[in-house]
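Sequence in, structure out.
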Amino acid sequence: MNILKELTIDSNLNNLYLVQQLIEEVCDEFNINNTYFGNISVAITEAVKNAIIHGNQSIADKKVAVLFAKENPAYTFIIIDDGNGFDYKNLPDPTDFNNNTFTGTGIFLIKSLADKVDFKNRGNTIEISFFTNSINYALSSDRANKLTTYHKNKSTQMLKKM
């Protein structure tokens, strides 16, 4: 994979603006429209937050790398943390009403917004791909509906617990 851009940050949520700058730079350079920019921005930011909080346990000395590669038709972001990884194959389903924890929500969000998500290296590396041929209204609408339904259901579930 030909890496075109690379950013390495300390594990501090205050550094998320640097990730946003990288995403904006990539989207500007490759003329990615505003609608799809939102999907990329939210998914990549969520992955970096997961890397900082869960992967590196917010230990500032640990690093998170964000790499970008473009191979037609995919725009791929690779997020690597210094943590021990996690069992990504056994995450609880956040859409299951019997799941009383809110774990897995970030991964659900990433998978809902991206076209392809792969975990590597014990789970401390995530490759998130967006395909240019899927930048269309129907797919964007379907993704928006999934997220709206998810948030309505979770809100209802939380209110019932109060």
